[in-house]
Design brief:
37% of the residues lie in helices and 25% in strands. By secondary structure, it is α+β, with helices and mostly antiparallel strands. α1 packs antiparallel against α2 and α1 runs parallel beside α3.
Length: 106
C-alpha cells in the first residue's frame, strides 16, 4: 500500500481501492482508468468523481477522503496518463460532485 485516506487505499499494482462496508466489499478503480471524463451540464469533469458520488454507501466523510485519494492517485500514477486526455478542471469536478453526493445522500 502506498497511501491510505479513510477507507481508500492506493495500491501500486491495482490503483485505488475503497474498503466499503468495513472491508466486506471492495470498490476498485484501476490505475489506467483514473483519467476518464464525462460531461455534466456541459462541463467536462472527472468520471470517477461523478460515478462515486452516486453510490448509496457514500457520505460526506468518505467522499472527501475519496477526492483526496483520487487526486493523489492521479498524481502518483501520472506516467500512465494518456496523452489525449482533455483538460479537465479538478476544482469544477469536485464542486459539482460534492453537491451531487450531498443531494443523493441527504
Amino acid at each position: 500500500m502506498i497511501a491510505r485516506f479513510g477507507i481508500w487505499e492506493i495500491i501500486e499494482n491495482d490503483g485505488l481501492i475503497g474498503r466499503v462496508h468495513g472491508g466486506d466489499r471492495d470498490y476498485r478503480i484501476s490505475r489506467e482508468t483514473l483519467w476518464q471524463t464525462t460531461t455534466y451540464n456541459g462541463i467536462l469533469i472527472w468520471d470517477w468523481l461523478f460515478h462515486v458520488s452516486h453510490r448509496d454507501w457514500i457520505n460526506s466523510d468518505n467522499y472527501n477522503d475519496f477526492v483526496v485519494a483520487f487526486l493523489f492517485a492521479q498524481d502518483y500514477f501520472n506516467d500512465l496518463r494518456p496523452e489525449n486526455v482533455q483538460i479537465t478542471s479538478s476544482v469544477q469536478s469536485i464542486l459539482i460532485c460534492q453537491e451531487l453526493a450531498n443531494e443523493n445522500n441527504a
